[in-house]
Amino acid sequence: MPAPIRLRELIRTIRTARTQAEEREMIQKECAAIRSSFREEDNTYRCRNVAKLLYMHMLGYPAHFGQLECLKLIASQKFTDKRIGYLGAMLLLDERQDVHLLMTNCIKNDLNHSTQYVQGLALCTLGCMGSSEMCRDLAGEVEKLLKTSNSYLRKKAALCAVHVIRKVPELMEMFLPATKNLLSEKNHGVLHTSVVLLTEMCERSPDMLAHFRKLVPQLVRILKNLIMSGYSPEHDVSGISDPFLQVRILRLLRILGKSDDDSSEAMNDILAQVATNTETSKNVGNAILYETVLTIMDIKSESGLRVLAINILGRFLLNNDKNIRYVALTSLLKTVQTDHNAVQRHRSTIVDCLKDLDVSIKRRAMELSFALVNGNNIRGMMKELLYFLDSCDPEFKADCASGVFLAAEKYAPSKRWHIDTIMRVLTTAGSYVRDDSVPNLIQLITNSVEMHAYTVQRLYKALLDDISQQPLVQVASWCIGEYGDLLVSGQCEEEEPIQVTEDEVLDVLEGLLVSNLSTPVTRGYALTAIMKLSTRFSSVNRIKKVVSIYGSSIDVELQQRAVEYNALFKKYDHMRPALLERMPIMEKTATNGPTEIVQTNGETEPSVVESKHLPPVTQPSNQANDLLDLLGGNDVVPVIQTTMPTKPASAGGELLDLLGDLSLSGGPPPAPAPSVPTSQPPFLLDGLSSQPLFNDIAAAGIPPMTAYNKNGLKIDFTFERANPNPNIAVITIHASNSTEADMTDFVFQAAVPKTFQLQLLSPSSNVVPALNQGTVTQVIRVLNPQKQQLRMRIKLTYTLKGSAVQDLAEVNNFPPQSWQ
């Protein structure tokens, strides 16, 4: 049989292939020749054939048939054969295949070989693909080589020990004696691998972490020598002495100094030296400075050192390299909560990053800018962020608008500024705002009594300019319906009033009803606004005519409203002024309180229960009476849950799973809560009553509590007493999120023992904003007629960074005032 071609010739031949099919044909032909050679047990060319096979494997072609040939090469006495054999074993074998166990004895023999290079091959292979069984069998040989005086073998043995510890953590103590002298080594390779080994042991064992804290002075000394040492050609990288070792030592110091005052104190000086003496003109120096900053932020460092670290990140923001700017923004975002004032000094640089062309830098800069907003800089920061909102890509508009809303609500210097800011957002990015922005703005306008004339005039002007932004049109329609008389009378004092007639206002609203840009929800707002104006304008006949036209609309929701409004004109005309009177000032708790979902032609519109402005579609009082009957009756109903937008109706069954062994009576699990029947009157308006759906709530001076705090999610409970029934405790949950990403699809569920009754109202949102930039609230009503100690089991489900998270917790530490 002729000698097979060499590896170099094979590479040259494959590279001449012009198509994938031609390359595949060459590979198949060569694989057939290699198989024939393997079958004939050709020892002469086995090494060459396996080398060619490994090259084909690197190109993505199957090479598993060469696994046993690798074992034969490992068993050979020739170094060249062993080298290719071990390389093939690392590439073609892993612990999922039993074949790898056949090489355990060969590796053991080679670990005791007289040639250091053969020992090195065995250590590399074991450290790369050794299974837990192999690691247990060969850990003794690795530990022995870790104590040898040969630096070539010690560095390889240290890395192999890292792999052994990862596979079999209980073998960690075996390597403890050998680690004592590792840091005394002068060879940088041994020092580097030793620090990697110590880092691995500290991360995996708290006992090891405590044991190695005494090495901090030695590590500080090594790092100081690296900084102060002169030029060394074998370790120099861009003018810096062994930056890889410096980075590794800084990472180990970060682990050792975390939550330890003494260790942190010992490394403060050296960290300051590294931060001030490292050259920043090259990327190598920036890498060391970044690790230094992370170490300073993680340990219990001095305040001056933390300011120095943040200033380094501020300098990174001025770097031309996009990666360095992104890293700086991400790091500042993590530290802004703890060192807010120091980060504020770099506010102008951070705002400049909003103009960067790189989208990832723009997003990080936007998130950090919102984190820097406070009462002192709200006007300046909002000006920059609104300018960014005008010019940014569509993918940023939703998050930016949401952030502006939250910041304006928290830090607004005046109500007029607040209203102007939100209207500016709705004008520029109305299609991207969150669903709850409309009811929230309506509540803000309603509560700003002195601003009604100014607001309705501004919104009317906005409608004349643009009706494409549906949230803006909805708010404007609502305000015109409520305060149309102020618009026509020209009572605005904040700016020059405009002269508007009743017919002009009605023309605008009728235009919304027929516009192709209007959604069904917007048309509902417009029709209701026209109906409200029947008690504020004198053009009642025109309004009757418009309403009657839509009694035959193909939109069922619009048709229902029109029919009810027609009936209001005819059968219930005596009730019309009272039903359509101006909305009262809304309670602040209603903003974040229970929301009701109004289904409108397939679209869902959240609106605040107590602030809903469509009287004809208000729920009949029978439903309120049924609800109160359930709360006060003899039948035990464990959970009465309002409609949840994110859960199907079967969610009540899942709630009962929470009860588990929580039942105080020890009986069988309670049956699922029955649906609440409502006796529907012949016409919706017949059921209207002045009785409110929920009782007024009065504060009872009960201290709040933290019910859950894990993985960045915090759940706080605040308590109130319901009037007039003192047996009902009203608990408001406040969910906040300290992680860097929003928690979406958030669902809070609760269950109580059989002796209690529990009602869950709908949450304010199903998204918990990141970095504590907002909270999700939800109201729980608990009936406790026997005044027993309150116990509750809660279930939390949400999605974080694409991963679904679910957790159960039991809450037993309720304050006595909440149930006594």
Automatic annotation (TrEMBL):
Q: What superkingdom heads the lineage?
A: Eukaryota
Topological type in the membrane: Peripheral membrane protein
Q: Which residues form a coiled coil?
A: none
Q: Which UniProt keywords apply?
A: Cytoplasmic vesicle, Golgi apparatus, Membrane, Protein transport, Transport
**PROSITE patterns per the UniProt record, alphabetical:** GAE
Domain spans labelled GAE: 700-815
Which compartments is it annotated to reside in? Answer: Cytoplasmic vesicle membrane; Endomembrane system; Golgi apparatus
Q: Name one GO cellular component term.
A: AP-1 adaptor complex
Task: Report the record's Gene Ontology biological process terms.
Answer: intracellular protein transport; vesicle-mediated transport
Q: Where is the signal peptide?
A: none
Which family does this protein fall into?
Belongs to the adaptor complexes large subunit family.
The protein here is known as AP-1 complex subunit gamma
Q: Which organism is it from?
A: Acanthochromis polyacanthus
